[in-house]
Design brief:
This protein is an alpha/beta fold. 24% of the residues lie in helices and 22% in strands. The chain has helices at 98-101, 115-124, 141-153, 168-175, 190-197, 202-214, 233-247, 272-284, 298-301; strands spanning 8-9, 13-15, 21-23, 31-32, 43-46, 49-52, 57-58, 61-65, 79-83, 111-112, 129-132, 157-162, 180-184, 218-225, 253-257, 290-293, 303-304, 311-316, 319-323, 354-356. The strands form 5 sheets. The protein has a 9-stranded mixed beta sheet with strand order 16-15-14-13-12-11-9-8-20. The protein starts with 7 loop residues before the first strand and ends in a 5-residue tail after the last strand. Bound molecules: iron/sulfur cluster. Residues 23, 25-26, 28-30, 38-40, 43, 89, 139 line the site of iron/sulfur cluster.
Length: 361
């Protein structure tokens, strides 16, 4: 590819009366003096405008199973070319990807690739989709969007893995070329978002309502359950009831196990019983597809027909077993449609995670 620009122009910002410039991409609305970087550290004020410093730069590429995103109702069993950059617009103390998301020196950005090269490689590798993941695509919005457009032109689908912490104007750009998303719903209290993530819950709920009611993006939710922080029955009851009321019963929810990491080391790993409690509670509240994750739980990680109880997709971690859907994505036993994006048969990628080198293209 041609030489990468040191920085890339962006669209969502405006000048303030005191000559600072405000970035309008996410609800942090960083107000920056010339030469300053925002909280995400990958957008900053330069020449009187906000510029992006990670366009075309990646922390590396990996072909993953789509189940790892996690997405259980989107082209099951297929490979997805996954990449991220550096920087994140939340500051979660429990971050499981902190080496990339909190990278400031950009020394993690080993690989470079243009949007067109990513799309070409994804197609050549047989990947059905490209995932914008590891860190959140919100701070690298322009790179993610251009790549998503290039992928769409080659028939490769796009998957955003995001916390949904994006401002109303920018989210239309972020999701326009996305086919699927996994959104982290990190907790269901403003207090948790404020104390643990340095953000707010309300904009995330707005993003979820937007995805459900104003787009065709298939999306699933993930909540990492941290003992003592966001795993009370009362909080999960409120969260799952909200999901059913505002998003409907067909949005899958994943409850995944926490492992002490980054700055949050005072909580133990999540007991499997907590994950099962959350899953059962969600189902009682009307969530039709609730999953446990990051644990060995064939029952909790499989998909079951909400109407007749037939097993639709057997899973163990990322491995797909028995397939109980017909060619139209309906339950083979009772004919009830399983919501999501399905083909006549699952893919055969298996559970491999394969690092790939795009060769600086
Ligand atoms: S995207 Fe980055 S610079 Fe822009 S408001 Fe959010 S944290 Fe600040």
């Amino acid at each position: 590819m041609s030489a990468l620009p040191e920085s890339y122009p962006t669209r969502y910002w405006h000048l303030l009366s005191d000559q600072r410039v405000q970035c309008d991409v996410c609800p942090r609305y960083c107000q920056l003096h010339e030469g300053q970087r925002g909280l995400c550290f990958v957008r900053g004020c330069e020449g009187g405008e906000i510029r992006l410093y990670t366009y075309g730069r990646s922390s590396g590429f990996c072909v993953d199973p789509i189940e790892k995103k996690p997405l259980n109702h989107f082209l099951p069993g297929t490979p997805v070319l996954s990449f991220g950059t550096a920087g994140c617009n939340l500051a979660c103390r429990f971050c499981q990807n902190w080496d990339m998301s909190k990278s400031r020196a950009m020394d993690t950005l080993a690989a470079s690739a243009s949007p067109q090269a990513i799309a070409r490689h994804a197609a050549a590798l047989g990947c059905r989709s490209v995932a914008y993941t590891y860190n959140d695509p919100v701070p690298f919005l322009e790179y993610a969007r251009d790549t998503a457009l290039a992928c769409r032109e080659l028939g490769v689908k796009n998957v955003a893995v995001t916390a949904g912490y994006v401002s109303p104007g920018a989210r239309e750009d972020l999701f326009e070329f996305m086919d699927a998303a996994n959104v982290d719903l990190k907790a269901f209290t403003e207090d948790f978002y404020h104390r643990v993530c340095g953000g707010h819950l309300a904009p995330v709920l707005e993003t979820l309502r937007y995805l459900r009611h104003e787009t065709k993006v298939w999306f699933e939710l993930t909540t990492l359950l941290i003992p003592g922080y966001n795993d009370s029955e009362a909080e999960l009851d409120a969260m799952t009831a909200w999901v059913v009321e505002h998003l409907g019963p067909d949005v899958p929810m994943h409850f995944t196990a926490f492992h002490p990491d980054w700055k949050l080391t005072d909580a133990p790993p999540t007991p499997p019983a907590t994950l099962s409690m959350a899953r059962n509670l969600a189902r009682r509240n009307g969530v039709r597809y609730a999953y446990t994750g990051n644990v060995h739980d064939p029952e909790g990680s499989s998909t079951w027909c909400h109407a007749c109880g037939h097993r639709l997709i057997e899973r163990d971690w990322y491995h797909i077993g028995a397939w109980g859907l017909d060619a139209e994505g309906r339950c083979a036993a009772c004919g009830t449609t399983c919501p999501g994006v399905f083909e006549a048969a699952p893919g055969h990628w298996g559970s491999r995670c394969l690092p790939v080198d795009l060769g600086g293209t």
